[in-house]
Specification:
Length: 310
Amino acid sequence: MSTFSRTLLLGSILAALTGFAHAGKSDARGPLSCASGQPQTSGTATRHDSEREDDGLRIAGLTDDGRLVCFSERKPGKLRVVASVNGLQVDTRLVGIDYRVQDGKLYGVGDAGGVYAIDADTAVATFVNRLSVALDGSRFGVDFNPAADRLRIVSNTGQNLRHNLAGSTLADGALNYTATATPGPAALGVSAAAYTNNDLSPATPATTGTTLFVLDATLDQIALQSPPNVGTLVATGKLTLDASALSGFDIYSTVRDNVTVRNRALATLVDADGTVGLHHIDVLTGKASPRGKLPAGTVLIDIAVPLYQD
């Protein structure tokens, strides 16, 4: 299992990044559930189901035909279909999902801009509010900033939105690469996004801030988005596999006493044989380490890892 804990020195705009590692235990009981767990203290790390601890993290997935699925990190081939997402208003489908650290719930964004809380065990969507800026693109990255409690939405047209669950949406600077990072300044392939350090710790020098990474499916590239509100991308790791526009990407944080002690990046990518597999991702180098194959014919447009699993 590979680990990394190198500090990113990409200028004063970069928040502190906690080291990544590649290990995990699940806490599901009975039928595989993708509901979040409970925060743990440094001395009380518990799991709800020791029989499943070797299966690794539980992961929620959103399929291209609108189904919510749940699978484990080490056995992605044993995928459980929860149900087709239902309860959408005006929207015809969800374009992305993520867990919000402030309440542990799963949320989704619809193709017409609706924001929903989703029951991870039933796939029932409850309308929260609607984006006040129209979505622009065909593929989207959706992830909560755990420090600011804002929903970040990026797209393959360079759109870069910041949404407050109270109802307001800001259109931030369009996604763009620094001149030395990649040929051409435009960023027209971003299809997934994930923040590090999914905890409730205040961003002080004694603790950790949060850093936003995106997956560019056109360039098969992981990039740092910093500052997130400006949209500047700095390439960090060239992926060793094909991302495709239908790749899922998320970062799981191991948290103790409200502080992240480890981050793990996961992605669903197209393997050399054309099948889709789950991989650990080193966001600094782009190295993809396989964890297993998804069932044949499964197409995921996003993944989200439930909180507080270890």
